[in-house]
Amino acid sequence: MELTDIKSICAFIDDAESDREIAYYVGIYQKALEALQNILIAKKGRKISDKDLYKVFKICLRDKRWYARIEIREESYNQSIEVSTFLPLELVEFLIDNAKDKSFVLGMHQSREDFLKNVLDSGRADIAAVLVKNGIAFTQEHLNRLRYDWDKMLKIEVEFQGIEGLEIEKDGMLKKIWELLISQGFSLNEIYSTGITLYNGMYNRKSSTADSQYALIYALRNKLFSEEVLDNSFQGLPPQGGINLAVLGKEGADLLDNDTAYAPLRTQRIVPFVFAMFEDKTYDVLEYALFLGLHKGRKNDKGEDFESFLQQKIDEYIILTTKGGNSYGTIFQEDKDALAYFKALQRFMSSLDSIKRGEVIEVDNETLAMFANIEEIPLSSLDTSKVTSMESCFARSIRRDFSGIEKWNVSQVKNFISCFENAYFFNASLESWQVLKIANTACMFDNAFSLKALPSWYKD
């Protein structure tokens, strides 16, 4: 098709084929940009009308998907991807820079479609930043939707590797979105409470995904907020019901916090960052914050340091899981799981100083993932000789550097279920692993986009 006018350009974009590789869809937009540039040259100094520029803008940023072909290790599948995902930033900038009335070209008055929402949903924080810079409002509703978009901002970095005209630098989209959020005046608490977590009223806590937690880890790693801001931005959750240690007699009564167990919601209870992450079960962020030492010198509103607070929780849950210390007199599996995590977290903390000194530390089934998913910790520093299960160890991990993993001792490991599932950046060779007791590898490498070849010992 010859692209000589706006109508032909829009038709060319609209008629894109399905089941094509990512480079094809990026190429569609690149050809459209070249055609627009040629039209502008042919006009010899005259502008392309705002009406025509808006037509192109609208079709490029509309709420539509293309079924693109994704190839992983010589296998391919179709994935529904928002059309604005493939859009070169240069094309958006061309449309805006050549407008007489930018607000018209951006559809701010004549369109009901939320173009900013569309680009956020596609993971294109760089385009979102340009739209906001040129007048489109970033609202609370846009912030609320972010909790669903973090994974796309990360995955796009892998899927577009080697695509000419759309190279994404490491954490490039996270950098853009954090700059945008901070420039818009959103507080850390606002971003965390609505853009990263979702409050679950049934369980009286906030929930989050590995991807959204990584977004906050990125902010910690790059010191986007001071420690003072971190420790003064979070209010503690109201106490959870259902646990009544008093029914256990003196042993339980000694652990019962009478000031908070049945107290009304205290909206002004400010808690230090690590305590807030613990209460919300934002555990990936908590572990990274502990690694950074953000617990040192901090105390909660009862005067407990984090180590004492954690031991108190362990003591409480030991009773819960041995005597059924809740209002139902029943031992619940979720309490057993919580106790196991608290004990693992205690072991994790006890080894932090050693790992920072460069020593090799012994890890177990529970602490392996805690250490392995912190990128600053070399994988060669982890002694895995006693690990028997690596289930979900790197599932949804955002780690980039896997050097040293090829030397891990996995001779005792039987369970590899989902070990690297959705580990977008995993690309290490495991050919040298001595998998002597392997029993289950289901979903071990599913959606490990960067891995070029599976080890010969692997059986799906």
Automatic annotation (TrEMBL):
- What name is this protein filed under? BspA family leucine-rich repeat surface protein
Q: Per its UniProt record, what Pfam families does this chain match?
A: DUF285 (PF03382)
